[in-house]
C-alpha cells in the first residue's frame, strides 16, 4: 500500500523488480494520478484511490506486507499523517512481519527537527525502527516493524533475490541502515506543529545556501557570483 502515490515511480519500480507484487495506491489529487498515467508510465492496472491516506486506512480492513508513506514534502506535511494515532492505525494494517517505509525528505544534523519528531513518534508505536540517509539529497528513509527481527529477515531474504545487481544493492545498505535511538518528541492529534518544524529546517537549508554564495561574493565579488551560476 502506497499512501501518497504521486507519479507512481515507487509502484513502477516494485513491478519491475518484483513482478508478482500487488500494489494499491492512495493519492489525494486525481490530477497527479492522471499525470502519472500520461507521463510516468504508471500501469493502468494498479488501482489508485483518490483519498486522504489516513481516511483511507480508517475505511479499509485489508492488511499489507508493506505500507509506504510518501506524503511528506517540505512544509506540506499533513499533520493527520504524522501523529502517534496515525502510526497506530498503520501498525494495525500491517501483516505479521510487515514493514512501514517512510520518505521523510527533510533531515538535519540539528537536534529537535521535524525528522526527529516523526522518528520518535514512529518509535513510540513500533519496537523496531531503522533509518538510512539517501546520498546526494536531504531525504532520510525510515523503516519500522512490530517484528524486532526485521533486519535479520531482510538480510536473509535478500539472498533469495534473483537479480544480481539488485541483490548487490541490498547488500550495500548494511553500512547505511542504522537503528534509531528514540527520544520523547511525540506528535499527537492534539499537538502536531509540523508546519513550524518544517519551516525551521527550510530556514536552515536556506541559511546554508546563502552562506555558500556569501563566501563566493566575499572572495571573488559580483563576477564570482555570476560565474557560479
What does this structure look like?
The chain is α/β, with parallel strands linked by helices and 229 residues long. The chain has helices spanning 9-17, 30-39, 53-59, 84-92, 114-123, 150-157, 164-172, 194-228, and strands spanning 2-3, 25-27, 48-50, 64-69, 94-103, 128-133, 140-145, 178-179. It has an eight-stranded mixed beta sheet, with helices on both faces. The chain is globular and about 60 Å long. The mean pLDDT is 86.
- Principal-axes shape call: globular
**What can be said about the biggest beta sheet?**
8 strands, mixed
Order of helices and strands: EHEHEHEHEHEEHHEH
What percent strand? 15-25%
Continuous helix count: 8
Round the Cα radius of gyration to an integer and report it: 19 Å
Residue-averaged pLDDT, rounded? 86
Low-confidence spans: pLDDT under 50, at least 5 residues?
A: none
Give the strand line-up of the largest sheet: 3-2-1-4-5-7-6-8
Please identify the structural class as seen in this structure. Answer: alpha/beta
How far apart, in Å, are the first and last alpha carbons?
A: 41 Å
Question: What is the helix fraction of residues, given as a range?
Answer: 40-55%
List keywords for this structure.
229 residues; alpha/beta; 8-stranded mixed β-sheet
Layout of SSEs?
Blueprint: E1 2-3, H1 9-17, E2 25-27, H2 30-39, E3 48-50, H3 53-59, E4 64-69, H4 84-92, E5 94-103, H5 114-123, E6 128-133, E7 140-145, H6 150-157, H7 164-172, E8 178-179, H8 194-228
Parallel strand pairs: 1-2, 1-4, 2-3, 4-5
Antiparallel strand pairs: 5-7, 6-7, 6-8
